[in-house]
Write a sequence for this structure.
């Protein structure tokens, strides 16, 4: 699968698969990395291409009329987000007071 594979690391984060039945057949459901109240998204993986996007700051979204299945919840023992790059290398994303950092090489260019 192209892009990244994510593991949630922030306490209070969930990984969800959108299951919304859209009237527009061109709409695609994605996998989201969200706050446990489903108010903010931190990252998502496109359902059609597998490409992923991680946001520098959480983005507030509306879930009205949308449905999701929880894939994974982060409990208090979870250390952070492990990200597996397209070549299999594992990197770690951490959050501290709203600032994100990653051990990946490309993160230093953002």
């Amino acid at each position: 699968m192209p892009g990244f594979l994510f593991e949630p690391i922030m306490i209070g984060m969930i990984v969800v698969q959108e299951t919304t039945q859209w009237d527009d057949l061109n709409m695609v459901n994605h996998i989201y990395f969200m706050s446990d109240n489903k108010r903010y998204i931190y990252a998502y993986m496109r359902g059609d291409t597998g490409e992923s996007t991680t946001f520098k700051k959480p983005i507030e979204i509306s879930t009205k009329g949308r449905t999701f299945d929880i894939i994974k919840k982060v409990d208090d023992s979870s250390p952070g987000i492990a990200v597996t790059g397209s070549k299999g290398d594992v990197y770690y994303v951490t959050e501290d007071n709203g600032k994100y950092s990653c051990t990946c090489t490309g993160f230093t260019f953002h």
Observations:
- DSSP finds no helices and nine strands in the chain.
- Residues 5-109 form one domain.
- The mean pLDDT is 78.
- Residues 12 and 36 are 5 Å apart (CA to CA).
